[in-house]
Design goal:
It is a single chain. This protein is mainly alpha-helical and 112 residues long. It has a domain of 54 residues. The chain has four helices and no strands. The longest helix has 20 residues. It comes from Candidatus Accumulibacter contiguus.
Length: 112
């Protein structure tokens, strides 16, 4: 059974969170950072992003969904997980995702 296989009855959200955790742990063991004179090799930087109100609400809803499934994640961690998923997208899928952020298709009156 591969690491990405889910057990029957597993929730897709919990399975995706588990898969991301496995990928993160695999990356940590594969990199073997070298330390020089007590300094950290991986630095963090502060980054501010602006979200539309609807994007922020979606992020909040996702956080609550995960919490109901027993997965605790901050909004920062969700954004970072999204970045990891984007890195693994096919380039055409990535272009579509970016296009949807830059110039989303206008909503039709059918859904209203």
């Amino acid at each position: 059974m591969s690491a990405s296989a889910t057990l029957p009855g597993d929730d897709p959200i919990a399975a995706a969170a588990h898969e991301l955790k496995l990928r993160r742990l695999a990356g940590k063991t594969a990199e073997k950072p070298t330390r020089k004179k007590g300094k950290q090799t991986a630095k963090t930087v502060r980054c501010k992003i602006r979200l539309t109100k609807s994007e922020f609400l979606e992020l909040s809803k996702l956080k609550k969904q995960l919490a109901r499934k027993g997965v605790s994640a901050s909004k920062e961690e969700l954004v970072r997980a999204g970045l990891l998923l984007l890195v693994h997208l096919d380039r055409s899928e990535l272009k579509t995702a970016i296009r949807d952020v830059i110039a989303p298709e206008p909503a039709t009156g059918e859904n209203e």
